[in-house]
Amino acid sequence: MQENYGDKIKAYRLNMGLTQNQVASELKVTPGYISNVENGRTAMSLRLLIYYAKLMGISLDALVGKLEPDYKQNAINRELLEEISKMPLDAQDKLLKTLKLWNNN
């Protein structure tokens, strides 16, 4: 992962107004483990990344995509598909027509 992985994990936690102790409790790890992740001394396992993303209210794709630039394209595609699937069918049709117009220019 890129150098500021821990910083981004910390930023998510702070944006949610959570302490290291609260996150540690939710993930069933020690506060020291969370501190080590945030300070770049260790990386989260896939299992913990899944739980962390859920705790932060985002998809794993969105979390990994924001942490790892090489994965960003897949994360953006997934996030777009999730948002589009929530739209009514007529709005999806309008969006598709708009996208086709943009791609032709």
Features:
105 residues; mainly alpha; 434 Repressor (Amino-terminal Domain); 7 helices; Lambda_DNA-bd_dom_sf; DNA-binding; Cro/C1-type_HTH
Fold and architecture overview:
Residues 9-63 form the HTH cro/C1-type domain. InterPro entries: Cro/C1-type_HTH, Lambda_DNA-bd_dom_sf. Pfam families: HTH_3. GO terms for molecular function: DNA binding. The mean pLDDT is 86. The protein has 7 helices and no strands. The relative contact order is 0.11. The protein has one domain (5-104): 434 Repressor (Amino-terminal Domain) (Orthogonal Bundle). The protein is mostly helical and 105 residues long. The longest helix is centred in the C-terminal third of the chain and has 16 residues, at 89-104. The radius of gyration is 17 Å and the shape is elongated. Helix 2 (20-27) crosses helix 3, helix 4 (46-56) crosses helix 5 (60-67) and helix 5 (60-67) runs antiparallel to helix 6. Helix content is 72%, strand content 0%.
